Amino acid sequence: MGNEPEQRREAHALLQNTTLYREFLAEREEILRHKWIESEKAGRDIGFDAALIDWVTKHRAGWRRARQPAPVQTA
To answer: How many beta carbons lie within 10 A of that of residue 61, not counting itself?
Structure first.
């Protein structure tokens, strides 16, 4: 078990290179941006949970569509 810290570092590095993890981080950034904007409008911190629910119901589908690669056109 002496290699456990090294194995954890390697697993973490591998995780950070996955598309799924990068998409998670990008989505989280959008939610935090939405939280800030909506909190400014409300004049108070609306909280992460409220921002998450609001962003998912109003913006997630469009955000994901916009991130999809354009379909390849064939001749």
So the answer is: 10
**Reported pTM:** 0.73
For residue 70, being part of any structural domain is answered with no
Terminus-to-terminus CA distance in the chain, angstroms?
57
- Number of domains into which the chain is organized: 1
Indicate whether 50 belongs to any domain.
yes
* Domain extent for 37: 4-64
Reported as a single tens digit per residue, the pLDDT across 11-63 is 777 777 788 888 999 999 999 999 999 999 999 999 999 999 999 999 999 99
25 three-state secondary structure: helix
Q: Does residue 13 fall inside a structural domain?
A: yes
Nearest to 34 by CA among 54, 6, 18, 57: 54
